[in-house]
Amino acid sequence: MIEIKDLHKSYKTGGSSLHVLKGINFSVAEGELVSIMGSSGSGKSTLLNILGMLDEADEGTYTLDGVPIKNLNETVAARYRNKFLGFIFQSFNLISYKSALDNVALPLYYQGVKRKERMESAMNYLEKVGLKDWSSHLPNELSGGQKQRVAIARALASDPKVLLADEPTGALDSKTSYEVMDLIQEINEEGRTILIVTHEHDIAQMTKRIVNLKDGVIIDDTLVDQVKAQQYV
Ligand SMILES: Nc1ncnc2c1ncn2[C@@H]1O[C@H](COP(=O)(O)OP(=O)(O)OP(=O)(O)O)[C@@H](O)[C@H]1O
Questions:
Q1: Which domain holds residue 35?
Q2: CATH, residue 205
Q3: What is the structure's pLDDT at 99?
Q4: Mean of the pLDDT values across residues 196-211?
Q5: Residue 9 near ligand 1, beta carbon < 6 Å
């Protein structure tokens, strides 16, 4: 589903350049649930932005569902991104003056789906995340966990093959974080590929594979069952 080879990325600020990703290689098969860990500044968000086609690498290749992502014109890139990728953010990024239902329906509006169909579909996704009865509420009338559920429903609305989540539980308490992760696991069990950036070990343990970044390189890439088994060695 995702294949990256020898990916490099530097940021140029003023006269200097910061080499952030220094030759990343990894692939993710369809249906995986992967967490990307690493200390602050290790390059996690930079990598996720490249995977999300929000930024481009300087060197290396990125192939998404068999298509090389390089030098696509903006319209093609936007269409491809909308079709294949869904995004979940730490701060939810909901539109404050729109109801939960309208927030979920928004990506479908941009895809040109007719009103009746998009409202039905959005309601189905709200039901899926357990918020059918909250459809008319505004984001500020919802708890953090509920907001993230709306955001997950919105990410699912366009039926993307891959979900990319940047610290999806970063703004939530532990109990709510685990509930959101239960939902993410459920969505993954249905076959959707999911990548999560997280700082939290217990959250990473709820995925199937942990990729550890340090100073722009992958230092460890382990299946979670193996991590758990090591505790008994
Ligand atoms: N647009 C940018 N311009 C210049 N430097 C940047 C830019 N974005 C990130 N950086 C720098 O690149 C390095 C890696 O940043 P990145 O956000 O990818 O790390 P991270 O592992 O996600 O960190 P955190 O856990 O704190 O979010 C940091 O030193 C950061 O300051």
A1: 31-57+72-230
A2: 3.40.50.300
A3: 97
A4: 95
A5: no
**Residue of the CA atom closest to atom 6 of ligand 1:** 11
List pLDDT tens digits, range 33-75. 999 999 999 999 999 999 999 999 999 999 999 989 987 888 8
Counting ligand 1 atoms within 8 A of each CB, the residue from 18, 39, 199 with the most, and so the one to mutate, is 18
Whole-number pLDDT of residue 232: 67
CB 95 near ligand 1, within 6 Å:
no
What's the rounded mean pLDDT across residues 96-117? 94
Whether pLDDT at 111 is above 80 = yes
- pTM of the predicted protein model: 0.92
What would the two tokens of residue 173 be? Answer: 């308490």
State how many domains the chain has: 1
**Does residue 42's CB lie within 6 angstroms of at least one atom of ligand 1?**
yes
Mean pLDDT across the chain? 93
pLDDT of residue 233: 65
148 part of a folded domain: yes
